[in-house]
TrEMBL record:
Residues 30-55 are annotated as: Disordered. It holds the Pfam family Lipase_GDSL_2. PANTHER family: THIOESTERASE 1/PROTEASE 1/LYSOPHOSPHOLIPASE L1, THIOESTERASE 1_PROTEASE 1_LYSOPHOSPHOLIPASE L1. InterPro entries: Ester_Hydrolysis_Enzymes, SGNH_hydro, SGNH_hydro_sf. Residues 91-252 form the SGNH hydrolase-type esterase domain. GO terms for molecular function: phosphatidylcholine lysophospholipase activity. It comes from Rhodoplanes roseus. This is Arylesterase. Residues 30-46 have a biased composition (Low complexity).
Amino acid sequence: MIVEVGILELVSSIVGSVLREPWLRVSRLPAGRAQPPSPGRRQSPSYGTPAPRVQPPGRFKALVAGAVLLAGVGTTGAAGQTAAAPLRIVALGDSLVAGYGLPPGDAFPVRLQKALAGGGRTGRPVEIVNAGVSGDTATDGLSRLDWAIGDDVDGVIVELGANDALRGIDPAVTRKALDEVLKRLTARGLPVLLAGMLAPPNLGPAYKAAFDPIFPELAAAHGTLLYPFFLDGVAAERGLNQPDGMHPNGKGVGVIVERILPKVEELIALAAARRDRS
């Protein structure tokens, strides 16, 4: 006990000296805002990182390293602190996730975050990260997957394929890209919720017959959660969409969040169980 008290006092002294450093200035990115574009045509190497970003000098790194080493001697609280950290769920998608045409506070990830305030059914704090890029196809999503989904992610919502259908892309191409997305994520042991899409009727019955089954079939093949149609209750509803008739307005996003929430809570429960096992 005497040793532990002495260590804690020393750590407190080190941290105090660090906090008095004049260079320590914290800045934050706007909460819930989708980040600019990905490899080749995108500027940022990561998405939606709300944590403080600082560039500490070497002295700070040395002080912190010493504090961490000392804190680990004779204490057992680290595992509990990890478990208490917010579960990080990334929403990987296109404009429907990014919040195209909406105020930042109405984007799907932000509204979902608000709906999960208090931890939802699991009672665990959750952070929803906006990894939506307007215009992305399933192949585009695959191209940025490995760097968009970092090692600190606990679960993923995949919403891709809407632009494939709108552009009439061969469903075989869409299937191949989504199959690879799910293969890579599940290989990492990450729980996944696949949000499905339906092809517009004007593309004809043959296209719909090839496109629509992609999502339930891939979810079954990879053992992921499935929300059959991301725009359920919103598609073709004039009062729930922007003037373009394709992108939901604020009310439409509210309907999407309300309907998908039970599946997201299933995803969070799986993510929490995975975190607890690690």
